[in-house]
Amino acid sequence: MNFLNPEYSLFLIIILLSLPVYVLAEIRKSRFRAYFAPSGSRVIFPERLPILAGIILAVMALMRPVSHPREQEVQLKGRDIVFLVDVSRSMLAEDLVPSRLDRTRFDIEGAMNALYGNRVGLVAFAGDAVLKCPLTTDYGFFLQTVRDLSVNSVTRGGSSIGDAIRFAIDQFYRDGEGSGLDIFLITDGEDQNTFPLEAAEKAGDLGISLISIALGDPEQGAIVPDTQYRGSEVYSVPDADTLKAIAERSGSGLYLSVPGGAIDFSSLIGQISSREKSTGNDRYTSYSEHYLWFLIPGFLLVTIGVLMRRFFPERRPGQ
User: Fold this and answer.
1) Does this model's pTM top 0.70?
2) How far is the C-alpha of 129 from the C-alpha of 279, rounded, in Å?
3) I need a labelling partner for 265 at 20 to 30 A (CA). Which of 31, 47, 120, 281 fits?
4) What is the pLDDT of residues 166-212, one digit of tens each?
C-alpha cells in the first residue's frame, strides 16, 4: 500500500506530538486517576480515545491510500493549451480584484470544465521562465500548480515576454503538432526588450496560436503594492499595443483586454475548440483506492466518542 498525498502526514505528526501534552494535562487535573480507579470504583473509559483514533483514521484517508498501480495508455484528440502566466511584481496590482495574479488563478480554476478533453500545461515567467506543469490530462495536478503560482514562482524579477514565448515553444512544440497548440499569454505586457513580436512571429510560422490577455486598466494603471522607485510609488499600466501586436503576429491569435472584472477563459477556449485537433498518446497510472477502509471506521469511532460524551459522562472519583 502507498499514499498519494503523503503531505497530510504532517497532521499525524502534530497529533502524535500533542499526545504527551494531553496526558500531562490530564495528570495535572487529576483526571487520569479516574481511568485507573481502585477496586470498587467505576473505571471510566475515556471517550476522547475513540474520537482521537477516528481523527487519525480520517487523516490517513486524506493521505489517499492506494495499491496495485496500473499504467495505461490512452489516445487523445484535442487541443494542447498552455497557460503562460506573468508572475512579476506588477501582477500584484489591484485593478483586478483581489489582484491581477490572484484573478488569473481563480479564473483558470473556474474554466476547468471548458478545458476537459484537452491537454494543459503551465509556465510561470518574470525575468525568466519556469515550467510548472508539462502537457497533461491530470487536471488535478495542473490545478494544484495553478493554485501555487506566486511572485516567488520565479527567482528573477522583471518581465521578459519574448523569452517566455520562446521558452514555451521549446518546451511544448513538437514537429508537425504545432497546429494543435495554443498559448495563453496572461500578462500586463510590460516587456524588457526581449523582442516579443519576433517570438510571436516564430510561433505563427510553426502553426502555434497566441492568445494574449492584457490585465489591468490601460488608462489609469494601478499601484504595485510594497514597491517604490526612488522613493515614489510604482504604477503599472498594461501595454495593450504590444499585446495586440503579439496576437496579430502569430497569425491565428486572439487579443483580450481585461481592465477589471473576471477573465473569460471559457469563452476564449470555446473560440479555439473548433480548430484542428492535435492527436497523441498519454500515459497515466490508475490505482485501487482504499480511503474508505480508513474513512468509514474513522467516522464510526468519532460517532461513538460523541455518543459516549452525551450519554455516559465521566464520573470523577468521589462521585
Assistant:
1) no
2) 27
3) 281
4) 999 999 997 655 557 999 999 988 788 899 999 999 999 998 999 99
